[in-house]
Amino acid sequence: DKDGHKHFMAKEIAEQPTAINRALAAYLDQNNQITLPEELDFTKVERLTLVACGTGYYACLAAKYWFEQIARMPVEVDVASEFRYREPPISAGTLAVFVSQSGETADTLAALRYCAGKAQQIAGLVNVPESSIARESDVVLPIHAGPEISVASTKAFTCQLVILLLMALKAAAQRGQPLPADLPEDLRSLPGLLHQVIAGEEQVTAVSRELAKAQDIIFLGRGHLYPLALEGALKLKELSYIHAEGYASGELKHGPIALIDETVPVVVIAPSDALFDKTVSNMQEVMARGGKVILVTDAKGAELASEGVAETLVLPHVNSVLTPILYAVPAQQIAYFTAIAKGTDVDQPRNLAKSVTVE
Ligand code: M6R
């Protein structure tokens, strides 16, 4: 049941505030104490290994920034299909975390089995609690997104991010690291902010009609928004069949800038945070070569850097730690409305399956 929406994807984008509230209810008590399963003891963990496929992998990449910066822990992130055949040495103090919406992805399950008996502990972040990955994990963290039907992952991604962030905050607290200002309290404001962005979807529809004419689209982001550039590009190619690539903004001049001309739109994901000026200077390099920039930022960013930009999507201000979660919504909306403009099958893109249970 699409609940009055045209597609399951639209319904699932709209459900994100509720889904995140459910995840917070499960893992954050009324006094803002993080209530993860007790077996998760980060004081005993020497390093983290995060493994997943597709969108889950990008959630892990964003979490790497959080675990390193907030909890000061060494973190390795890998796609499951590479990890399993590389046979990496797993040190005894490793917490291995497997992130999977379905809990049935063949490569992720094989990677988990490789770690069994080698890692100190195996944690599974799944949306389907009775899945194989859940069954074979020492600790299971259901993400509480609710059933996700559309092939393109949306609410599972934002719920994965919320729980990975709670894990990083818990790890910081247990390891005597200071928590970032106003966290975890500010997580409470996220559902309302997501709701605002979802309600403001019409600012994306005009942008998407333009994007639908392009052959190639580039997404740029820096710091913990770099994984979101990758996710934005994946979502767009998956749904609209337009070739899209995500890059770390600083990598632009190491190759991709050769692609830029007036036919290549560049989506720049840049809230006004500590790295804003750096990303803006990359954006100006794009504009100097005729590239059409779509800037995704907040009101302050728009005021500082909209000059010469083709379109600006303005999001509400949010604690900078939380930007990967809030900025996931415009990335989803861009893919969704571009697919609508192209007339592709949004919920069932060609060649794709919801759950990849074979290699
Ligand atoms: O069920 P999983 O989270 O293990 O699935 C992993 C990927 O197959 C999945 O995220 C895929 O990339 C999505 N179609 C992305 O929208």
UniProtKB/TrEMBL annotation:
What EC number(s) would the UniProt record show? 2.6.1.16
Say which domain of life the source belongs to. Answer: Bacteria
Q: Does the keyword Secreted apply?
A: no
- Cite the entry's keywords alphabetically: Aminotransferase, Cytoplasm, Glutamine amidotransferase, Repeat, Transferase
Annotated SIS domain ranges read: 36-178, 207-349
An example Gene Ontology biological process: carbohydrate metabolic process
One GO CC term on file:
cytosol
GO molecular-function term, one example from the UniProt record: glutamine-fructose-6-phosphate transaminase (isomerizing) activity
Catalyzes what?
D-fructose 6-phosphate + L-glutamine = D-glucosamine 6-phosphate + L-glutamate
Report the locations given in the UniProt record.
Cytoplasm
Task: Please state the protein's primary subcellular location.
Answer: cytoplasm
The UniProt record lists the keyword Cytoplasm: yes
Which top EC class is given? Answer: transferase
The active site of this protein is located at K354
Note the subunit structure.
Homodimer.
Job description of the protein: Catalyzes the first step in hexosamine metabolism, converting fructose-6P into glucosamine-6P using glutamine as a nitrogen source.
UniProt protein name: Glutamine--fructose-6-phosphate aminotransferase [isomerizing]
What is the native source organism of this protein?
Answer: Epibacterium ulvae
Complete-protein stretch covered: 244 to 602 of 602
